Amino acid sequence: MPIAAMALVVVLLGAFLWVLHRNERDEEALALIKDALWVEQNLHFQLTSDEDKLERLAEALGHGTVDVRQFAAMARLVVNTNPAIERLLWLDADGSTRLAEPPLARSPAAHAEPEDPPGRLPRLDAMRIAGSSGLRTFGAPYRIDATDSGFDVAVPVYRDGALFGTLVGVFSFEQMLTHHVPWWFAQRYQLEVVDATGAVLGAKSRITAPGSMAGPAPDPARSHVIPFDPPGHGVALVATAYPSDSNVARTILVAAIFALTGSALWSLWSLRRHIAGRLRAEEALREEHAFRKAMEDSLTVGMRARDLEGRITYVNPAFCRMVGLGEEELVGCGPPMPYWLPDEIDRAEAALSDVLAGRAPEAGLEMRFRRAGGERFDALIYEAPLIDANGRQTGWMGSVLDITERKRSEELARQQQERLQQTSRLITMGEMASTLAHELNQPLSAIASYCTGCLNRLRSDRFDTEEVAAALEKLAAQAKRAGLVVRRIHDFVRKRDPKVVPCSLAGVLEDCVGLTGADADRLGVRVELDAQPGLPPVTGDRILLQQVVLNLMRNGIEAMARTPSAERRLTVTVRRSDGGSCEGGICEGGICEDGGVLLTEIRDRGCGVTPEVAERLFSPFFTTKREGMGMGLNICRSIVEHHRGRLWFEPGTDGGARFLFTLPIHQSAPHPATHPAPPPDAPIPDTDAAEAAE
After folding, report:
1. Which of 72-76, 321-325, 413-417 has the weakest average pLDDT?
2. Range with the poorest average pLDDT among 474-478, 557-561, 586-590
3. Are residues 430 and 554 in the same domain?
């Protein structure tokens, strides 16, 4: 027991001395950091004060309130009263030195410019940056002379809003340390200014009296590095402490006293402190865990972590609810995942390979997953590297968004747009009622006349069979014409899915000219159709294309309500333009088809479109009509762009407006040079028997 007690006393004594030594080193390190930070702040304060003086001097130069002699005097005063500033330079906008204080050395040759000063390249870089940014700029450090290094502060000088020159202050590291670092700091530490490569630019250390022995060298292990920014460019302050005088006697005395009287108390107190600290750490850990858990539970975005081999290492409750599986069912799973679709496993594995290879798309990846109950949903996934506390990548963290509702909303918006187009056609049909009555009046009148004539011939018992047959043929032609009119209006307003087939654009234009005939006659407008012969068909929906042309033609007819009667002319032109020629600006906006396009122009001589209206011409719900809805041109542009074309507006050369749109030629159509296209008025065959019967 005595031996064990003595051994315990020795152990406790050694532990106490070690703890005491460690605390002293920690206190010295803390004092070093505090003193170094104080010196760094003091140097920044002095440097900021000098910079403010340079800016005031630059403002005086920019305002033109001082001449060269006054500036030289002011610069001399700044250099003399601020020891850290070695020299002030006034440079022109091209970098030439106008004035230097103190003056630069000149070459012996007569009329020679001053010698190239040290650090000219860093100075020119700082001057260019200051001139482009309008702010003071710090140059890279350079060697001023054989014993000193420094840096430049470039302040741009503006006069009348233009760069007039640059005021450059040359700062010396040695002078800054000599005049701005207190003596007591140099007694305790060695202070050095180093660049990014570790080269010493300036230093201040303990001053040793002449003839006396130099003190102990500073201890490199007890140093502290602080970035010196400004001036930046990798410059740093390195404060290294000198070894402190050892106090072994005091340490031994204190150790002996406390070893005999306080060994038990010290042990208990240390144990109590350790236990209290551990309890506090555990409580902080529990609070942190509870806070993190509350954040995870409140998220609506699914979070999923995977290791470098693709196995799931973590999921949050939102992801579990999204896929309908528990955390214990997901953690540890590798590919194929239980929420992958069986028919899309290849695509999911390819996406996983891209993620593990670091090729995850920044815009996110859309995938389709399934829930535990079999329901499918659309997900948008963003992947990011998972970095641990040591800076190593341990896997990938994915954010999973359920975009099923968003895609459903987009589909609903598309359907609403289609219904809006149908409503627009119905409104157009109401406005075309007068056209229908006008067009049906002539064939019905002709039918009645032919019927009356035939009845009169038959009742007279004196008739020629050939003559009656000819009249009946004409009657049948007029009846067919009336049926075509009704069929054309019925097809236009009937709700149906778009039927994209090859169709004759010239035939569409001729139909539209016929439909707008009543409105044109009512307003006295002459409609002219100019279609090149043998135009190839385009790929599109005939009814939707009729809606576009009718809207544009009716707009042009209504725009000429106040135009003199002799000048009311609406011209509709269609011509072919090859994709390579890009005639008429067809390639604007990126629309240029290899097989060529058909360019349609509808030109009126109305009131035209003002620049203010032209900016919003195709905006939804914008209209210049008193009873308009503001959707006609917007729907027309949507229809043309749906057909891979382009619709735009140009002012007319002789007044009025020109609306132009392009449509790509049907790719399988033969070239008109070898296989002429059918004439524009040839009917498009209809293979739908149900529609024909209706």
Report:
1. 413-417
2. 586-590
3. no
Q: Give the pLDDT mean for 236-252.
A: 75
Measured CA to CA, the distance from residue 139 to residue 233 in angstroms comes to: 8
Q: Indicate the number of domains in the chain.
A: 4
| Average pLDDT of the residues in 228-257 | 76
pLDDT at 80: 85
- Does 131 share its domain with 219? yes
E strands, 494-604, are: 501-503, 526-531, 538-540, 569-577, 597-603
> Residues 519, 384: one domain?
no
Tell me if residue 119 falls in helix, strand or coil. Answer: coil
**Angle (CA) 561 564 568, round 5°:** 65
Distance, in Å, from the CA atom of 330 to the CA atom of 339, rounded to the nearest integer, reads 9
**Number of CB atoms found within 10 A of residue 65's CB:** 9
- 515-567: per-residue pLDDT in tens? 777 778 888 889 999 988 888 999 888 878 887 888 888 888 888 888 888 88
Q: What is d(CA 226, CA 239) in angstroms, rounded to the nearest whole number?
A: 8
- The pair of structure tokens assigned to 8 is 């315990």
* Contact status, residue 319 vs residue 400, Cβ threshold 8 Å: yes
Which residue range is the domain that position 517 belongs to?
A: 500-693
Beta bridge partners of 574: 531, 600
Band of pLDDT at residue 679, cut at 50, 70 and 90: very low
Residues 266-285 pLDDT 10s: 677 778 888 988 998 998 88
292 lies in some domain:
no
Let me know whether 397 and 413 are in one domain: no
In contact, 74 and 169? CB cutoff 8 Å: no
Q: What is the dihedral of CA 618, 619, 624, 629, to 10 degrees?
A: 110
| pLDDT for the residue 432 | 58
| Closest of 3, 27, 18, 7 to residue 270, by C-alpha | 18
Nearest to 127 by CA among 177, 167, 186: 167
Residue where a domain terminates, one of 359, 374, 402:
402
Paired tokens of 42: 């003091």
Helix (H) or strand (E) holding 377: strand 376-387
**Average pLDDT of every residue of the chain:** 77
- Burial of 269-299, coded b for 16+ CB within 10 Å and e otherwise, reads eeeeeeeeeeeeeeeeeeeeeeeeeeeeeee
Question: Residue 575: how many CB atoms within 10 A of its CB?
Answer: 15
Tell me whether strands 657-664 and 189-194 are parallel, antiparallel or unpaired.
unpaired
Element (H, E) at 171: strand 162-172
What integer is the mean pLDDT of 178-192? 85
Q: Give φ, ψ of 495 to 5 degrees.
A: -80, 125
Backbone Cα Rg of the chain: 46
DSSP E strand boundaries for 34-84: none
In a domain, 294, yes or no: no
Using CB atoms within 10 A of its CB, is residue 18 exposed (0-12), middle (13-18) or buried (19+)? exposed
SS3 407: helix
Flag whether pLDDT at 573 surpasses 50. Answer: yes
Asked whether the predicted pLDDT for residue 672 surpasses 60, the reply is no
Residue 284 placed within a domain: no
